[in-house]
Amino acid sequence: MKICVLVKEVPDAAVQKRIDPSTGRMDRNGEKNLNPYDTHAIEAAMQIREGGAVEVDEIVAVTMGPSTAIRALHKAVSLGADRSVHLSDDALAGSDVAATGYALAQTLKRESPDLVLLGQQSDDGECYTIGAVVADHLQMPSLTQVIQMDVEAGPPTQLRCERQAEYGYDTVQVELPAVISVGDAINEPRYPSLKAIMGAKKKPLDALAIGDVDIAADRVGESGSKVICGDFKAPPAKSAGEIIEDEDTNETVEKIVAWLDERKLI
Amino acid sequence: MDFDLSDDHRLLRQTVRDFAREQVAPVAEELDRTKSFPYELVAQMGELGWMGIPFPEEYGGAGGDSLAYALAVEELTRVDSSVAITMCAHTSLGTQPVYLFGSEVQRRELLPDLCAGRRLGAFGLTEPEAGSDAGNVRTRATLQDGEWVIDGAKQFITNAGTEISGHVAITAKTGENEISNIIVENGTPGYEQGQPYRKMGWNASDTRPLTFTDCRVPEENLLGPRGAGFKQFLHILDIGRIGVAAMGVGLAQGALDEALAYAKERRAFGKPISKFQTIQAKLADLSTEIEAARLLVYKAAREKDLGRNFTLTAAQAKLKTGRLAVRATEEAVQIHGGYGYIEEYPVCRFYRDAKILTIGEGTDEIQQMVIARALGA
After folding, report:
1. How high is the ipTM of this complex?
2. A75 vs B: CB within 8 A
3. Selecting from 3.90.190.10, 2.40.110.10, 2.30.42.10, 2.60.40.2950, what CATH number does the domain B120-227 have?
4. What are residue B220's phi and psi, to 5 degrees?
5. pLDDT exceeds 90 at position A81
6. 3-class SS of residue B78
7. Distance between CA atoms of residues A198 and B63, nearest Å
8. Does A32 touch chain B (CB under 8 A)?
9. What's the pLDDT score for residue A128?
10. Which chain A residues have a beta carbon less than 8 Å from that of B57?
């Protein structure tokens, strides 16, 4: 079984996010890190391998991004992936979710994975949708927000997944190949040891451009994207709330009721 | 000149930062309050290769360099000094003498367990009458029938009295004007660890007095050539200064982190106190001092990694960062106001943890002496 894990380099969680007014896009300068949700996807792949229910031949980390994104791949292989694939091309800059999903799917076709794992959301764009787009292009079933995954050896190999929904939990059985996006409740990712960090660069890395995986240039990049970045703005700062001191509880209740009543909330 | 860290260094720093925030921060207050040694954290750090960062893989080390070691120490101290000094003293003082001066047999026997964090190493230099004047050793070791017979006492020794303490490398007089380093393993009859000290800070680290009474160890426990002890410990202390200087930067950064977060949240006179110039000036000064000190520490580590003489830079880094840690933690407490004096806030612990950094591993006054000597004064 071959598992591909989609990973992304994002601004570090400690960096305050802001919109660059000149581009209308997120300012991605500053310290970067591997998307935290993707570390759960790598851990999920490692746990399938270590669980022993099926033989995992290879775990491959795949990313699309600029040259710096190679660092996200280093972290991914230090966490256990066997090798990595870096899709990078000037033509890809400015791709929206649909274009990115198409490009990643083309890259994945070259690998023919039995299972594609990814974090349910990226820490920067937070679209939650890339897994579904990739799955559509690959004509594979897609499950999102998965927080538990058990492998049942086949044939056909199946996954029994629990997904987190607004109303509770869904238990879904899916036949491989499939694209699964995982939530952060699925596991606690390990830390890469120093040896693994220093060994990361020794693991094979394929650098690919769009021509290597038959990506049509007019379907990616800013021009190939349907999303037009026009008027992105940071949300307005919330005004300070009203604090009601609880001196006399009866009075406090009256004040709260009056406040809610005034706004026609009750 | 390149100020960027390599990808490996950056990833290590990020990993230790995550570990410190996720694993150390939630237990730091309790470990300090209950004066409990962080066994679980040490085991985890051992598995991650952090208890043997600068030692070669053939001895079980992680094969990293001094810069990697300094980065790890810095990030740990940013969250908790007790955990950091445990790792730091174990590496630079406990394990380093075995690696640098040990025979191949000693290295093969001791280093794998030390580097994996299964055993802790300690360094016994300081005595009641030998602190800054470390050459004034009173502990004696006499060779009798193929054994060193050791009598004497050591004090303020880190990592010697835990359940996983493996050995202490002590300095002892082996003759007139002759100092040698000798390994004494825990459990050797006549070697006793006293009760832990009641310290101002570093409460979760293990610090004790040691006594040696007719303590006999095999002759081959000598580290390196007989009589080389003085030169050896000076070299060990040089290396140790890089680690302790990294602690100073880390602690100062941790204090700034806490002070900044608090200042942005705490409101007075209708706005966050971070908007007041007096608070801003403190934060700006600290951030500037920290960045300057950090460069000095990294430079000392780089010099060592490049095989250059780093004695001067390491002493400068140690002097600069110890003072800075004391000042930064004091300012952080000041910015917290009354809350800074309460143990629920980390800056209270940071303030107590800082002072030792101007004393341990060579006082400020000793650093000044080393620096002046290097200047030719």
Report:
1. 0.91
2. yes
3. 2.40.110.10
4. -75, 0
5. yes
6. coil
7. 9
8. no
9. 87
10. 195
**With the C-alpha atoms ordered B224, B227, B233, B238, is the resulting torsion angle positive or negative?**
negative
Question: Touching check for A232 and chain B: CB below 8 Å?
Answer: no
- CATH homologous superfamily, domain A2-219: HUPs (3.40.50.620)
A228-247 average pLDDT score? 78
Q: Which two tokens stand for residue A167?
A: 């109303």
Task: Tell which of B5, B24, B45, B48 to mutate to test the A interface (max A CBs under 10 Å).
Answer: B48
Cβ neighbours of B11 in A, within 8 Å: 71, 74-75, 78, 192, 197, 200
Q: Report the candidate in B277, B82, B281, B59 with the shortest Cα–Cα distance to residue B162.
A: B82
DSSP state of A211: G
Q: Is the CB of A15 inside 8 Å of chain B's CB atoms? A: no
Distances (CA, A) of B81 to B243, B320, B351: 12, 18, 11
Helix%, strand%, coil% for chain A, nearest 5: 30, 25, 40
Residue A11 to chain B, least CA–CA distance (Å): 13
Q: CATH for B230-374, among 3.30.70.3270, 1.25.40.10, 1.20.140.10, 3.20.20.120?
A: 1.20.140.10
The conformational region for residue B143 under phi > 0 = left, psi -120 to 50 = alpha, else beta, is: beta
Q: What residues of A are in contact with residue B7 (Cβ under 8 Å)?
A: 70-71, 74, 201
Instruction: Give the SS3 label for residue B196.
Output: coil
In the three-class reduction of DSSP (H, G, I as helix; E, B as strand; rest coil), residue B369 is classed as helix
**Tokens describing residue B149:** 């017979």
pLDDT, one tens digit per residue, over B174-196 is 999 999 999 999 999 999 999 99
